[in-house]
Amino acid sequence: MTKGIQVAIDGPASAGKSTVAKLVAKRFNYVYCDTGAMYRVVTLAALRHGLAMDDTDQIIRLAQQIKIGFKPGEPEQRVFLDGDEVTQDIRQGEIDSNVSAVAAIPAVRTEMTRQQREIAAAGGIVMDGRDIGTTVLPNAPVKIFMVATAHERARRRYVENQAKGIATASLADLQKEIELRDKKDSTRAVSPLTQAPDAVRLDTTNLTIDQVVDEISKIIKKTQEQLH
Length: 228
Known about the structure:
The strands form 2 sheets. Strands 2-6-1-7-8 form a 5-stranded parallel β-sheet, sandwiched between helices. A 3-stranded antiparallel β-sheet has the order 3-4-5, with helices on one face. A hairpin with a 6-residue loop joins strand 3 (68-71) and strand 4. It is of the alpha/beta class. It is 51% helix and 14% strand. It has helices spanning 17-28, 35-48, 56-65, 93-103, 106-120, 132-136, 150-163, 171-187, 209-227; strands spanning 6-10, 31-33, 68-71, 78-81, 84-85, 125-129, 142-147, 200-203. It folds into 2 domains: 1-30 and 125-223, 3-Layer(aba) Sandwich (Rossmann fold); 33-122, P-loop containing nucleotide triphosphate hydrolases (Rossmann fold), CATH 3.40.50.300. Helix 1 (17-28) packs across helix 9. The mean pLDDT is 92. It is built from 9 helices and 8 strands. The chain is globular, with a radius of gyration of 18 Å. Its EC number is 2.7.4.25.
């Protein structure tokens, strides 16, 4: 049995990172570290403790005390807060409304980065985000930087929203939103969106999800062979 390795997948908004990361993790029986879910867990803990979302000091203290964990599961991965499963709890509307405020606290981000590294230390992990290969797991043996044109990413978001019955902006407006998000992510002061020098750039504009998963799987297998 080959010991699992760390796989970091980065890229701009709506590049399909999470969808692909989950499928890659399933294929290799790796843990998928859902970094977005981690901020949702902190938000849930804060709400359970009756904290106001602007009580930054208490939220930071709480984030440093709790332990977040993941386990593979069907149909979706299971998420834990101090050993208790919270997979469904973190998807409630109240969490949606408050998670951005929590994720914006620099000290909370620092603590989540620490926990992400801890989770990844044993290997056998796939993690996606915007600064995984550059900041969170700079020594990951596999780093992928997923890109697609802004138009294609807007089209995917539009189709996805329609399929879910979500009222959505026009395709042109979605493209403008995505381009604005790209600019913000690329120019922010802390951990800007940038491709790690040793990351494989993967343009998914003309690829299906399955083709992207296949490409990344080939890279993982090749790396595993080189390491063992």
